[in-house]
From TrEMBL:
Membrane topology listed for this record: Multi-pass membrane protein
Transmembrane segments annotated in the record for this chain: 26-51, 72-91, 97-127
Domain Mechanosensitive ion channel MscS, first and last residues per copy: 114-180
Protein's name in the database: Small-conductance mechanosensitive channel
Keyword presence, Secreted: no
Domain Mechanosensitive ion channel MscS C-terminal: residue ranges: 188-268
Gene3D superfamilies listed in its UniProt record: 1.10.287.1260, 2.30.30.60, 3.30.70.100
InterPro entries, per database record: LSM_dom_sf, MS_channel_1st, MS_channel_C, MSC_TM_helix, MscS_archaea/bacteria_type, MscS_beta-dom_sf, MscS_channel_2nd, MscS_channel_C_sf
Span list, region Disordered: 277-298
Domain of life where this protein originates: Bacteria
Subunit structure: Homoheptamer.
Any single Pfam family the record assigns to this protein: MS_channel_1st
């Protein structure tokens, strides 16, 4: 019993000696690691705030992209601090960096579609082909932009439907932005009958455009015969308005043109087709033709 007690005491003293030796050997390393970690978090927070404040100086820089880049800067500092702390204890950081690189490559391949959306989202936020509140059409979908995220863009259609479009689908296609430019041109085409007065129709449409205050006067409206159609002579009224007035102006001018044409006796024909009937040969004609053919054959 006494021998076992002595053995336990000897083992405990040996373990304590090893712990003491380890503490003495790595005391400065542990202390340095603690200081590095504390300083690293402080520096990471300072770098994040510095990047955010620097990007906030540019009003055109998107808030989402500012937050994303500031977080990237923070985590980059923390990763550097973690590698430095491991180096304090003699860990071969080269192998850790290689392992992190391999893990990053594997994760990148596994999340290829997601990362593609992130890259597209960054490009959309930087180049700004559209902004929140603008009406756009891309990839066969159209709607008003509600928000632009790093992964997807939220849109709202004219009939109130919600659309979540992946950023990669919006970046890899042509985007038509109906709200970006302050002015828009409209070509309103109305067909009149071939027997109607073309000059009177053009004058009437031009008067409607001139009387509307929403139609810009610095780019004078014009009318011209654009096509001789199958059933009508197509007359085009070309004018410019602000983008916000474009749609309502088109509706109002179309309605006013119909009323004005009715008052002046100008018709707006509907598609029509002339059909000519050829009389079928009678039975006597068929018999006579048969006899003539038989006589010629003899």
């Amino acid at each position: 019993m006494e021998m076992q007690t002595e053995n336990l005491m000897t083992a405990a003293q040996a373990a304590l000696a090893q712990v003491s030796e380890f503490a003495v050997s790595y005391a400065f390393s542990i202390l340095g690691a603690i200081i590095l970690i504390i300083a690293g978090f402080i520096v990471a927070g300072m770098v994040e705030r510095w990047v955010r404040s620097a990007l906030d100086r540019f009003p055109s820089f998107d808030v989402t992209l500012t937050s994303f880049l500031s977080k990237i800067a923070r985590y980059a500092v923390l990763v550097l601090v973690g590698v430095t702390v491991l180096a304090q204890f003699g860990v071969q950081t080269a192998s850790i960096i290689a392992a992190l690189g391999a893990a990053g490559l594997a994760i990148g391949l596994a999340l290829q579609g997601t990362l593609q959306n992130v890259a597209a989202g960054i490009m959309l936020l930087v180049l700004k082909p559209f902004r929140v509140g603008e009406y756009v059409e891309a990839s066969g979908i159209s709607g008003t932009i509600q928000s632009i995220g790093l992964f997807a863009t939220e849109m709202k259609t004219v009939d109130g439907l919600y659309i979540l479009a992946p950023n990669s689908s919006l970046w890899n296609t042509s985007v038509t932005n109906y709200s970006r430019n302050a002015r828009r041109r409209n070509d309103l085409v109305i067909g009149i009958g071939y027997d109607d007065d073309i000059d009177l129709a053009q004058k009437t449409m031009l008067e409607l455009a001139t009387a509307d205050d929403r139609i810009l006067s610095d780019q004078e409206p014009a009318t011209f015969v654009s096509e001789l159609g199958d059933s009508a002579v197509n007359i085009t009224l070309r004018y410019w308005t602000t983008t916000s007035d474009w749609w309502q102006t088109r509706l109002d001018i179309t309605k006013a043109a119909k009323k004005a044409f009715d008052d002046k006796g100008i018709s707006i024909p509907f598609p029509q087709r002339d059909i000519h009937y050829l009389p079928l040969p009678t039975e006597e004609q068929n018999t006579g033709d048969s006899k003539k053919s038989a006589t010629k054959g003899q």
